[in-house]
Amino acid sequence: MAEQKTVVKTTGFVGPNSASDPVEIDIADGRPIRSRPLEYAKFATEDLNPWVIRARGGEFKAPEKSQPSLFGIAWKQRVDSPNRILHPMRRVDWDPAGERNPQNRGKSKYVRISWDEAMDILTSEVSRIKDQYGMNSIFVQSDGHHQVKIVHGARGCEGYALDLLGGYTLQARNPDSWEGWYWGAKHMWGQDPVGQGMQTNLFKDVAENSDDVLFWGCDVNTTTWGGGGQGSSRYCFFLRDIGVRQIYVCPDVNYGAAVHADKWIPVLPNTDAALQLAIAHVWMTEGLYDRDYIDTHAVGFDWFEYHVMGGDDGIEKTPAWAEPICGVPARRIKALARSWARRNVSIAHCNGGSFIRSTYSHEPARLEVALLAMQALGHPGRNQLKFMEFGLFGLDSQNPLPRPKFTPNMHDIMFPYHADKRESFVTEVLVPEALGGDYTPENPLTWYGVTCSGMPVADQFDLKRYPAEGCERIHMVWTDAPKWVSSWNGGNEFIDAIRSDYIETVVAQHIWMEDDCLFADLLLPVNTKFEERDIVCDTVSGAFSAVWLEEKATEPRGESLSDYEICVEFCRRMGVLDQYRNGEPIDETIRRGFEGSGCQWFTSFEEFEQNHGYLIPIAKNWEEDAPGFLNFYRDPEAYPLSTPTGKIEFYSQALAEHFPDDVERMPYPRWIEKGPWHPDERLTTPRAERYPFLMVSNHPHFRLHSQYDDAPWIREIPGCKVTGPDGYAYEPVWINPADAARLGIGDGDICRIFNDRGWTMGGAIVTERIMPQVVLQDHGARLDPIIPGVADRAGCNNTICPKHTASKNCCGEVTSGYLVGIEKVDVFELARQYPEAFSRPYDPETGTLHLQAMTADAE
Amino acid sequence: MKVFVFDAERCNGCHNCQVACKDEHVGNAWPPYAAPEPNTGQFWLRVLQREHGQIPMVKVEYTAWLCMHCERCVAAEACGSDAFARRDDGLVYIDPARCTGCMDCVPACPYEAVFANEEAGIAQKCTGCAHLVDEGRLPHCVDLCATGGLRFGDAEDFACELADAEVMRGELGTGPRVYYRNLPHLFLGGEVWDPQADEVIEGARVTLAAVGGVEAAQETDDFGDFKFERLDPGEYRLAIEAPGFKPVARDVVLEESTYLGDFPLERA
Predict the structure, then answer these.
(1) Which keywords, in A-to-Z order, does the entry hold (chain A) (predicted)?
(2) What confidence score (pLDDT) does residue A145 get?
(3) Would you call B193 an interface residue with chain A, using a CB distance cutoff of 8 Å?
């Protein structure tokens, strides 16, 4: 009889205190058999008080089971990916005692070494850098969408160890998915931490009061990994049942629109600002907005009105003006404006995409606040609703669902982040500049804001610099998140930078051989969470909150360790282990985590351990919480916003004072076609002659950036990949039939996607799901370099995004809505031109076998 | 008798069911019902996709497709080794111990739901996760469907829902036990507007008459749009009338869901 057990694992990806989508994994003889949705009732130790939202004759109930995405199911496949790094490895021509050959990163291969040798190299390199340059010359990359772990890291493990030795330079967390909200909306309506609207009880409010929901650049069926799993889609079915109309405004029939949209308004990427201004124009000229509300709840409206009516630039922002810019016929803009004005309308988002992550993303974000304000933001049924990250940062105000009795946390055992107290850091989106640029303390790289995402808005007014005063530049990189190249904008520049002579040592600890690992000098093998015992806070599932004890589901593969275990050994060798979580056993850390989680008041650790978790009941009085901005709507004096005036600031005095010369983010929201930072990134600007398409790059539907790009069960879903005549599964690129016919591109043809920053590839899907003049390719595909820093085969279009940030004073990434060209290619001709890149070992089920390709022993 | 019930109005195309099937059956043997399924390329349950319409009326139809567990299993009739078995609850499976790998059942199944596992030398298909059903549990695909798109249970429990459900290829008379509800069929849509004023026309009366069949009518919405849904292929006559405008009529041969484009109406 096989030994059988069941363990709980969370499978969503947000952040350390934000686990989600728990599943129960059945295990027989140490092998995961299946992943099942977790049955909530089994884990309720007291009155769970499951929520029910009743509206318009319908009921939306808390699910009885968790609602994982397919990522949660396919997790177990990744444990035994052929790209698992199983042993420590060193780049063959990197000799820490001699020639380092940084120029060969990405080209030269690796040899297996022992853990002992690996740790010797690591400790001696850290000591050398410390003596030679100082600790701030070690750059720690420890961010992104890790598997959610607490004890075992990854986030913070090596950073905290280095702090014990004197510090490091931090890759500071960027407000990645919230760019426009962070850099724009915050200046209008406050809303720290990330600039998105109040979410409290909005599932209830929308169901009860909204007539329409505008899903503006929003795909409820793609960000399922970000908490909530299939729950958001389930809610959208409920909205349909009770007659709430769902209108999608986006360039593509995204996966949410494909099933939920009652109407689709196609808009050219990153031209939403023109559409929004034209709507405002209709309202202003036809008296269709709430003037009284503006008088009592807002300041500076006259500046905005002046811009809409053309006072400042001589251009009246009429629907006819907007039509050629945004691609929406003027008559439909008017219809939308008038319909909106007579109905209760909320706007929904899921982060990402061209609406919020393109050039000048602060403008559409601010204009959305402007439009919501003109229709009395906070009025029942008129709010901004978000379909992921429910309860972000542990805040009830970020949770549109019935709130838990309390929100658990693991602060007692998490390594501190404390970005704002660090001597030295670099904002995430400027990493290539910091690593490869000629910056010195006398000639520093400077930028505003992003000490850490979620900082109060005043952070955006502080000029930051790298290298920090009196410090030497970065000479060593230690990353537990080796996925910069597929995560942010300017991947090719990152590749150039990581190969610069400045960077003497690159240490990557990771699970799989992918992305930035290809450019490391020392590779350390890490476990998946299946191989670890850990404790996590499940706070963003959008059903219930919980603390879970995640028991081991299987034994570690090869010689892999957890990020934490690696750093424990590092600290032991450096003589600081007693200061590193006191050197305590992992089980004791888990116990301490529980004892500080909030759950300890309601259950004992022994019960928690026995039950594998504690499910937190729903607050008894959740229905009494005022939804969204209702309190502000009713009484703006008693419930002011966090802006300087407490009102919605159509004109931001703070921006005017701090950035008087900024012509790209002015004190009031505007249409910005081009500017100093992005002079030529529109269909109306000259580069469009060479690169005549706007690229839409949303959050990936079948991956989380490059994670799962090797999952066979996902790769074989039609539409996930397009297999070329060479048998290689290319990342799809959607193109409209009219454009495809003009360019001679047929469905399934393999294409080159290019601009002056390099090129990548894609397999054409000719479809009505994308507008003319636009191509769509999800970002984040697992890099497969053809010419490192120039060309990629995998469709990792992060390599050709604009390197410049959202605007001059805003460090937002630009990963969508930029110019590209596309052409059909002959893959066999390319294979002749680039024989090495096109002959890497390849497995049709999982893709390129980078580990095999990069292992010298295999030859 | 056990049935699967697929509801097209509850399916969001997440593919959880397809991947769940792999999760349950790849690398796992469930005797006597099934040997392990190949890792890729075969789908005991697969999700079919079909794109409908043209910009800006575009939708995607997803359909879960699996062994229909037919009352009269055509594949079983082709089996040369008596490997097919039907349980008392109606689930049909191929006993891997009895299958000789002749593969005659594979082309015989009109639903293309039987697969030749060449490596194992056996024919394979959906078992309805009979091993889980034996334990009182749901098939794994159904367990992982969060939206209610795919359900499973005793036919009598779904009785009122089965009344208006469809089966695939019912003309074959095989008595499939996978029922489909709310299949979208085809749509026909368009937009009505006034080019002189550059305004959409709300409330225009649009009628669609099937040649030799029934007539449906609706008014354009606040975007000037009309959309007739759940249509079958055929010949239709579309007529648009709005006060103050000249009426428009058009004959349409409907083969696929179609957005007819915009209808600029002339002033009367």
Answers:
(1) Metal-binding
(2) 64
(3) yes
Q: What is the pLDDT of residue A417?
A: 75
Closest CA in chain A for residue B53: A768
Residue ranges covered by each domain of chain B: 2-181, 186-264
Closest approach of B163 to chain A, Cα-based (Å) = 21
To the nearest whole angstrom, how far is the Cα of A222 from the nearest Cα of chain B?
9
Summarised one tens digit per residue, pLDDT across range B156-200 is 999 899 999 999 999 999 999 999 999 999 999 999 999 999 999
Question: Strands A476-479 and A505-510, how do they pair?
Answer: parallel
Residue B39 to residue A35, Cβ atoms within 8 A: no
For chains A and B, count residue pairs whose Cβ atoms are closer than 8 Å.
140
Q: What is the ipTM of this complex?
A: 0.97
d(Cα B120, Cα B96) in Å, to the nearest integer? Answer: 9
Q: Say which of B23, B41, B223 has its CB closest to residue A332.
A: B223
Fold classification of B186-264 (topology level): Immunoglobulin-like (2.60.40)
Write the secondary structure of A354-414 as one string of H (helix), E (strand) and C (coil): CCCCCCCCHHHHHHHHHHHHHCCCCCCCCCEEECCCCCHHHCHHHCCCCCECCCCCCCCCC
Q: Does residue B196 belong to the interface with chain A, where contact is any CB pair within 8 Å?
A: no
**Structural domains of chain A in order of their starting residue, each with its CATH number:** 179-399 (3.40.228.10), 686-858 (2.40.40.20)
Q: In this structure, what are the phi and psi dihedrals at residue B212, rounded to the nearest 5 degrees? A: 75, 15
Pick from A33, A253, A330: which is nearest to B28 by CB? A33
Enclosing H/E stretch for A335: helix A330-342
Taking the C-alpha atoms of residue B113 and residue B74, their distance in angstroms, rounded to an integer, is 11
For A135-165, give the secondary structure using H, E and C. HHHEEEECCCCCCCCCCCCCCCHHHHHHHCC
Q: Does A713 touch chain B (CB under 8 A)?
A: yes
Q: Tell me whether residue B87 is exposed, middle or buried, using C-beta atoms within 10 angstroms of its C-beta: 0 to 12, 13 to 18, 19 or more.
A: middle
Inter-chain CB proximity A713 and B222 less than 8 Å: no
Q: Does B261 touch chain A (CB under 8 A)?
A: no
Q: Residue B188: which H helix or E strand, with range?
A: strand B186-194
Residue whose token pair is 């169901």: A207
**Which pair of tokens denotes residue A219?**
């795909």
Rounded to whole angstroms, the Cα distance separating A543 from A617 reads 10
User: Could you tell me which residues come within 8 angstroms of residue B230 by beta carbon, excluding any fewer than 6 positions away?
Assistant: B184, B185, B186, B187
Half-sphere exposure of residue A124, counting CA atoms within 13 Å on the CB side?
Answer: 10
Do A449 and A805 form a contact (C-beta atoms < 8 A)?
A: no
pLDDT at A858 over 50: no
Q: List Cβ neighbours of A21 (8 Å cut-off, separation of 6 or more).
A: A10, A11, A12, A66, A67, A68, A69, A72, A224, A225, A227, A228, A229, A541
Please list the pLDDT of chain B residue by residue as tens digits (268 residues): 999 999 999 999 999 999 999 999 999 999 999 999 999 999 999 999 999 999 999 999 999 999 999 999 999 999 989 999 999 999 999 999 999 999 999 999 999 999 999 999 999 999 999 999 999 999 999 999 999 999 999 999 998 999 999 999 999 999 999 999 999 999 999 999 999 999 999 999 999 999 888 899 999 999 999 999 999 999 999 999 999 999 999 999 999 999 999 999 999 9
The reply to whether residue A68 touches residue B16, judged by beta carbons under 8 angstroms, is: yes
Whether B190 contacts chain A with CB within 8 A: no
Asked if B39 and A712 touch (Cβ cutoff 8 Å), the reply is yes
Residue A859 has pLDDT above 50, yes or no: no
> In what helix (H) or strand (E) does residue A7 lie, and over which residues does it extend?
strand A4-10
CATH number for B2-181 (one of 3.30.70.20, 1.10.10.10, 3.40.50.10860, 2.40.30.10): it is: 3.30.70.20
Give residue-wise pLDDT tens across range A516-555. Answer: 999 999 999 999 999 999 999 999 999 999 999 999 999 9
Contact A154, A589 (CB under 8 A): no
